[in-house]
């Protein structure tokens, strides 16, 4: 089938996708849905939830959604002995301030960051800023507006000490490393977002600790933040598994040895199961070498789980590009399992997107189709994209 024929089909499907899309805006409390009950050991939160409402800390506006930053702060406040945080990006000053207070109180705090996001924005020179890519320049300008507390277009050392989260970390002498601590230029991506408190309380989230991933862009009042989720879990067993992962990456911390392990340098571990009162958790860590069987990877574990579906599969995904998972879903669909998918629109229509496969479509890139590309012979019409506020993205990685 020619690319023009595929695009013709796409034009029809766009109309259908429009009907599936959801529009978010600041809404009043009379539009709230009834909240669902929470498990006593596992609580789930969504910053775009329609069943809760809160007043934002920084923009002072009331909006629908769960306050993800508050959930993080509440867990940090429980700390009596230790706090370990591994997060790709940390830009929320109240989190840094809470960590600084705990550090001052004698609690052991450790932080691991991704090397591309481990430098304070306020340390960049004019020349460095001019060399940034457009997206990073926009992020820097957003940072300036946020730090300029009195809005006089000047950033003072006092404002930086209050609003630059990484400066707060550094000034408080909290030990931290990034993924260059193994002696490399970085692991390509240290993508964790978890907190462990007192070897018992755990936060695991799809959100980076930034305004854009929690409540929304500071200078855009209509932004509600990238759509994200957060789990709070009370489980010493889970905390121990995450502490093991943290310690592998930490090594000796900032002491200078190159014994930290990131990316493919981490030891390969099998999935571990944890039984809580009403729930079973399976924990697996990425990445895994391509020389290892794909079935041992995190995607392999996801595929194995999806292959057990007997009624429905619902997905909300930032990116969906794993062909083998799409093939598993096609098999489930052919066995009358109902499948629905929401994909971030920036990535839904790329040549590598499995959203196209599910719709029975294929797009080439540079006149080449993806290797092993397999559009569904019996496509579905329940693939959609979200329409969020300008600048907000669907950042979930959920399959139900």
From TrEMBL:
- Molecular function GO labels: phospholipase D activity; RNA endonuclease activity producing 5'-phosphomonoesters, hydrolytic mechanism
InterPro entries attached to this UniProt entry? EF_Hand_1_Ca_BS, PLD-like_dom, PLD_domain, PLipase_D/transphosphatidylase
Which keywords describe this protein according to UniProt?
Hydrolase, Lipid degradation, Lipid metabolism
Lineage: superkingdom: Bacteria
Give the EC number.
3.1.4.4
| Classification via CDD domains | PLDc_Nuc_like
Q: Which Gene3D superfamilies match?
A: Endonuclease Chain A
Per the record, the GO terms for biological process are: lipid catabolic process; phosphorus metabolic process
Which Pfam families would you find in this protein's record?
PLDc_2
Q: Which residues form the PLD phosphodiesterase domain?
A: 186-213
Q: Which reaction does it catalyse?
A: a 1,2-diacyl-sn-glycero-3-phosphocholine + H2O = a 1,2-diacyl-sn-glycero-3-phosphate + choline + H(+)
Q: Which organism is it from?
A: Anabaena sphaerica FACHB-251
Q: Which top EC class is named for this enzyme in its record?
A: hydrolase
Q: What is the protein's name according to its record?
A: phospholipase D
The family classification in the record reads:
Belongs to the phospholipase D family.
Q: Which SUPFAM superfamilies match?
A: Phospholipase D/nuclease
């Amino acid at each position: 089938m020619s690319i023009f024929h595929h695009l013709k089909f796409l034009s029809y499907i766009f109309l259908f996708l429009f009907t599936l899309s959801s529009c978010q805006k600041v809404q009043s409390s009379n539009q709230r849905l009834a909240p669902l009950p929470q498990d006593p050991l596992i609580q789930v939160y969504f910053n775009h939830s329609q069943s809760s409402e809160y007043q934002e800390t920084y923009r002072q506006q009331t909006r629908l959604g769960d306050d993800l930053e508050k959930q993080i702060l509440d867990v940090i406040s429980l700390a009596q002995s230790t706090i370990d945080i591994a997060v790709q990006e940390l830009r929320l000053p109240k989190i840094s301030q809470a960590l600084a207070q705990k550090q001052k109180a004698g609690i052991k705090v450790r932080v691991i960051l991704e090397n591309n996001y481990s430098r304070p924005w306020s340390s960049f020179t004019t020349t460095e800023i001019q060399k940034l890519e457009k997206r990073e320049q926009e992020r820097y300008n957003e940072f300036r507006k946020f730090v300029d507390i009195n809005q006089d277009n000047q950033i003072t050392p006092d404002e930086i000490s209050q609003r630059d989260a990484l400066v707060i970390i550094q000034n408080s002498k909290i030990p931290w490393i990034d993924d260059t601590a193994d002696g490399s230029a970085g692991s390509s991506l240290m993508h964790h977002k978890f907190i462990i408190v007192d070897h018992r309380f755990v936060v695991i989230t799809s959100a980076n600790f930034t305004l854009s991933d929690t409540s929304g862009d500071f200078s855009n009042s209509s932004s509600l933040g990238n759509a994200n989720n957060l789990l709070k879990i009370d489980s010493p067993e889970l905390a121990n598994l995450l502490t093991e992962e943290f310690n592998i990456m930490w090594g000796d911390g900032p002491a200078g040895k190159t014994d930290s392990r990131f990316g493919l340098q981490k030891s390969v571990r099998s999935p571990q199961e944890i039984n809580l009162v009403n729930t079973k958790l399976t924990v697996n860590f990425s990445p895994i070498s391509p020389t290892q069987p794909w079935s041992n990877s995190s995607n392999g574990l996801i595929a194995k789980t999806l292959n057990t579906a007997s009624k429905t599969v619902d997905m909300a995904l930032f990116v969906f590009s794993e062909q083998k998972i799409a093939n598993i879903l096609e098999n489930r669909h052919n066995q009358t399992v109902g499948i629905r998918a929401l994909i971030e629109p920036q990535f839904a229509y790329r040549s590598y997107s499995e959203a196209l496969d599910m719709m029975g479509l294929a797009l080439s890139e540079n006149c080449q189709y993806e290797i092993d590309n397999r559009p569904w012979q019996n496509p579905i019409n329940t693939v959609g994209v979200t329409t969020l506020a300008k600048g907000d993205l669907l950042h979930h990685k959920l399959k139900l």
